[in-house]
Amino acid sequence: MQTELSKQLGVEHAVFGFTPFPAVAAAISRAGGFGVLGAVRYTAPDDLKRDLDWIEAHIDGRPYGLDVVMPAKKVEGVTEADVEAMIPDSHRQFVRDTLAKYGVPELAEGEASGWRITGWMEQVARSQLDVAFDYPIRLLANALGSPPPDVVARAHERGVLVAALAGSARHALKHKAAGIDIVVAQGYEAGGHTGEIASMVLTPEAVDAVAPLPVLAAGGIGSGRQIAAALALGAQGVWLGSLWLTTAEADLHSPALTRKLLAAGSGDTVRSRALTGKPARQLRTEWTDAWDDPHGPGTLPMPLQGLLVADAVSRIQKYEVDPLLGTPVGQIVGRMNDVRSVQAVFDDLTRGFEQAVDHVNRIAGRSGQ
Amino acid sequence: MQTELSKQLGVEHAVFGFTPFPAVAAAISRAGGFGVLGAVRYTAPDDLKRDLDWIEAHIDGRPYGLDVVMPAKKVEGVTEADVEAMIPDSHRQFVRDTLAKYGVPELAEGEASGWRITGWMEQVARSQLDVAFDYPIRLLANALGSPPPDVVARAHERGVLVAALAGSARHALKHKAAGIDIVVAQGYEAGGHTGEIASMVLTPEAVDAVAPLPVLAAGGIGSGRQIAAALALGAQGVWLGSLWLTTAEADLHSPALTRKLLAAGSGDTVRSRALTGKPARQLRTEWTDAWDDPHGPGTLPMPLQGLLVADAVSRIQKYEVDPLLGTPVGQIVGRMNDVRSVQAVFDDLTRGFEQAVDHVNRIAGRSGQ
Ligand SMILES: Cc1cc2nc3c(=O)[nH]c(=O)nc-3n(C[C@H](O)[C@H](O)[C@H](O)COP(=O)(O)O)c2cc1C
Ligand SMILES: Cc1cc2nc3c(=O)[nH]c(=O)nc-3n(C[C@H](O)[C@H](O)[C@H](O)COP(=O)(O)O)c2cc1C
């Protein structure tokens, strides 16, 4: 499964894997794909350093990348306290009431939330980059907009390719104008922040809009058939996020959450603003229902919502409060039904891809070929 | 592009086309696909008879089918007047106010609405079948649920294959249990009544759920690349509805509506209950916005909503009131950018399919083949 892009990056398969877990990223690259470590949760540069060191020690010299979250709209000189002050009391009360209703215990004094606002702020993303550029990363991806020009320039100086996620052809064109190298076209069915246009329609639109820039198809991919489909749509590779969440190498810190993912069907996700204030696909839970209820207070805009619910989400996760327990995940969750190693998942993907190509060739009357 | 199903039906290409227009249905079959006439708007059996006669005279002996709408839930002994009586006055007032706001003229006395409830009722669908079974139709498709057992039996006695639309693997399994022959797996991106699961995820789920029954992929398909993708996902063919709306043979009765379709992008549709009370993808207009507005009265359940807005929709269409003018259509509308003959569209689809297969073979390292 070789495209110009996979050749350029020196990987065997044009399969890119986004993951917040260093062990998964390294395993994806070792299996012949391209692992991309999500950096948003690294608020302390030293933690990122430690995990990049770990990757370097475990990736057998294979190429890998980093994903940061630099929102397109810059918020200058605003502190976390300023944002805190913008949150209405009624919303805070709603959080307290909902947690109380389900008997969610408090965090111990000083226990940090995993979801601080800081990871979304440009200073933090920049401090992540300062760390990452000391490592031989081959790709820098950005969610939520084009990266700033100086970041693109800095990456290019070091021979690092720049990718950006896009939910529409219009976004993809903006990225192209910003000088990026790869568009990740992310469809409606994807886990995480996502738009309304489904991969079947979005992928070829993005491909045609930014040609000759390469497009990676993201959203709804979890089998070799879906990889073949994405490549038929014109993508130069695929970008998978959800599928890795139930691999043996993933570390969700919650057996209950893993069980929920394994049991969920493709109809058990929702695109909700509950997590960050922007629509993100995630497991549908009584927590997302509470926020999406027209009789509730509704969600606040980013970054207020993320800050408002940060501690609550930590508490729900830590104490595994089942009806409220969720995670970003896409519709492909319906096919994530057992825990397997990244290598086993990869073997399935590549074998399934070959079978799908055979199948299409038979239909096209090229079965002798 | 031959699958077991296309061979069984004796068509050259596994491309099924749903259309409300006899001229389009005939042209699809003449081009080597399989035309399926939508019957929902035929409230008078004689009109359907007239149009099937027309098809017979223009289809060069090629096979074709009929699509009826038999809602899964039977409404026994309920008349149109009973349903009318269930509509709150406040909703009628909202319709009047909205039409007045945009200066929509009244219909002339006795002008029939194109969207009467009757087309959705089982008696009417049955009267359509009484007509259709006198014609050599090869396929009977049903929207909104499995057809009743006696209808399936009647079709099978005549050698007519039965298809049903499904928005989830669960629906697909219900259809299989009802003895149908073909599942049309219709993704979120499709025009018309549709569920939440996108084609990329839904198609393989439905394929695996009902195997060995054949699945047709519907939703978001308008190019040969998308056909190749659908077949890679395991479908035995594709089922297209939106793409034909802007063909030369289509008869929308409204140049303004055709212009809107040609200009719309993939982000200009919405899945709204405004038309029938069940979520259906359609052009987003100020009419759908009014119904989807959280400060408005909201929509009524099927069949009330359809009855409530029937005359209003007729008036908007007849007088081409631009900001309110819409139609069911899928996200593929972004690629419907010129008026072409069905044959020209078909040539594009088949040529694009061959190119997509070449492309995937190159990536799979089978370019010599
Ligand atoms: C748990 C989770 C967290 C994610 N976080 C990010 C992120 O921080 N940055 C980003 O660019 N994309 C993020 N995404 C989106 C992925 O990069 C990817 O586009 C998406 O998962 C692809 O669709 P799929 O979920 O159907 O595989 C996340 C996805 C998941 C499932
Ligand atoms: C204008 C229009 C009317 C439709 N009406 C019906 C219908 O009466 N019965 C039905 O089974 N499907 C109906 N559909 C859905 C189509 O059968 C088909 O599943 C759908 O259009 C496929 O997705 P696409 O729009 O992306 O091609 C309609 C679609 C459109 C665009």
From TrEMBL, chains A, B:
The keyword Heme does not apply. Its EC number is 1.13.12.-. InterPro entries: Aldolase_TIM, NMO. Pfam families: NMO. Keywords: Flavoprotein, FMN, Monooxygenase, Oxidoreductase. It comes from the Bacteria. CDD domains: NPD_like. It is an enzyme of class 1 (oxidoreductase). GO terms for molecular function: monooxygenase activity. PANTHER family: 2-NITROPROPANE DIOXYGENASE, MONOOXYGENASE RV1533-RELATED. This is Nitronate monooxygenase family protein. It comes from Streptomyces sp. 900129855.
